[in-house]
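Feature request disguised as a bug: please show the residue count (154) next to Putative SOS response-associated peptidase YedK in the output. Example input:
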Amino acid sequence: MAWDVLGGQAKFPMTNVRQLALPQWRRLAERPESRCLIPLTEFCEWTPGTHDVGGGKPIKGEMWFSVIDQPIFAVAGFWQGTASGAGFTMVTCDPNDLVAPIHPKAMITVLEEADWDRWLTGRYDDVVALQQPYDASRMTVRGPEFPTRAARLL
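Example output, currently without the count:
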């Protein structure tokens, strides 16, 4: 399964979605069979500015966020079959107070374990209601870390 819910049909991989009322995303949000849980141990956001760490061009740092009481947590997602195979995307929401200084526009929608079934089987209104920032006091961040080489996820 590829991290691109549109299967390469857009200019860039569609790795996250936010506006669930848009027709292309509402169609996925309304269908429980298109919803999934994405397990993570942590997620990365890049620092807003670059840092001079020597050796050439300044680079951005990696800030790694995790959930304090859950070594593995679940993120709200959608998946669908495409011409190039199955693809998935993460659902984003407004950032919490921990993520906002690094990424002021959005963060991924971390779900409480008690909400997993509601995400997977609930109505469209349930999906929209769960698209909320996770409690910042239950998260931690480490960084910035600076990659020693350029790495590509996709």
